[in-house]
Amino acid sequence: MNGLDVHAAVTRAHREEWARVVAALTRRFGDLDVAEEAAAEAFATAVERWPADGVPANPGAWLTTTANRKAIDRIRRENKRDDKQKEAQILWDDPSVPPAAIEDERLRLLFTCCHPALALETRVALTLRMVGGLTVPEIARAFLVQEATMGQRITRAKAKIKAARIPYRVPAAEDLPARVSGVLAVLFLVFNEGYLATSPDTDPVRQDLTAEAIRLTRLVRGLLPEDGEVAGLLALMLLTEARRTARVSANGELVPLDEQNRGAWDTGLIAEGHRLVRERLAGGVAPGRYQILAAINAVHTSARDIRDTDWSQVVALYDQLVSLDPSPIIALNRAIAVAEIDGPEVALAAIDRLDDKLAGYHAYHATRADLLRRLGRGRESRAAYDKAIELAGNTAEAAYLTRRRDQLG
To answer: In this structure, are residues 120 and 128 in contact, taking their beta carbons and an 8 Å threshold?
Structure first.
């Protein structure tokens, strides 16, 4: 096996095994710092040894065993082995705690990272790091904050989990409803990072993250089958994932919705997503944020051609969403739909009012660039494209924006 093959094997193992290794070590040692650092050391050892020794038949088992040894070595070096083992037993192996409804180590890790004692943005960041395996720079880009700030946020979160003795387990049934909203917010962010990766050093679409977010959302739905927002988030993910293979061209460019080959969409995922949306609508309960977003995606995936899209329904759904979530990004997306009904000039006026809130967001400038192009304002459009390209971390999106800018002449 050559060096390229080994590198690919390590990359694949990191994508598939990181969360499992971290979760297994967290359960055994009860310490996120120990788990994360030992896992990282195990992968570093793989980079050193696999080229000479060959890729093991079971990379996950090899990495878990190696990480366990690294963790034990660290504990011995700190001369606190007995204390840490006793603490781990008290915190994580309490026999009075009933077994979780779903025994999945990554789900345990997810609920630990999403504990309400942590701020929501901290839960998301910690989960992206511990469950998703993203690097601190990748997470910082996803949050539009400095790398040092994000590193400190994650460090403080792990320290708070240790100090507060937050248990490593799926919550009891009576505690689940209060805990699930934070988990859903995290899963949505993980999915979005896979759907449009923020790092230029990764694939533009990270199927490992979208697949993991969907898998974990299905597990949460198994815990709360009647929760409308859990079903709504799952539907939203499925309807978005259904378009994945049509979203990047053969030459590595992002393909926008209006140019995608709809015949390449996954009809099975679309059918499942539509069924979930219909079930929630039939329930007669006022929909939440994820259910409305799923309904918007259901409208898009129901149209055989972009010209068949019911834009009036899309705007009406965004109007509902704005009442629940009056964020500038929702307002931006609503304006994009308004452009299809009232024209680009009306939409541009709405978007320009968001400048002070979204000046650092690449999609804001990309949307302005497109509307200015449609209005024939080429010089302003080019400047907006330049800013969008500067801020875009996704390579496929940057390639698409560059081509659109260059077409202005």
So the answer is: no
